[in-house]
Amino acid sequence: MKNTISRMALTITALALTTPAFAIERVDTPQTTCANIQNILNRDGAAILRYPSKRVANYTLYDRYVSGDRFCKRDERAEPALVPSKDRANCHVRLCKTYEPIIDFFD
Fold first, then answer.
1. Quick one: signal sequence residues (predicted)?
2. Among 12, 44, 81, 85, which residue carries the largest CB count within 10 Å?
């Protein structure tokens, strides 16, 4: 029994050490071109995009943006969004938004 527990602990430790840690990239959009932002999202599937607020001085906005629906939660869909970039005032990206499925009980 003790030997089995030791083997299990060793196996779990080995798996934890060999499994890559997927850190999400953080991008300051005003220093990055729109094409590069879109390339990062297409390559990684998701990234944290940070940019200054237009309404509040010295305030940074950020959110998790994605390349498509498969990077959203089950009750979310990837919706079009805009962020500022180095070369564009409005860079087209996607943001996960909660949606309510339409269920027709009378059909």
1. 1-23
2. 85
pTM of the model: 0.73
| Per-domain residue ranges of the chain | 24-98
- CA atoms of 91 and 62, how far apart (whole Å): 14
Q: Give, rounded to a whole angstrom, the gap between the first and last alpha carbons of the chain.
A: 59
Number of H helices, E strands in the chain: 2, 5
Amino acid at 93: V
pLDDT digits 0-9 by tens, 44-93: 999 999 999 999 999 999 999 999 999 999 999 999 999 999 999 999 99
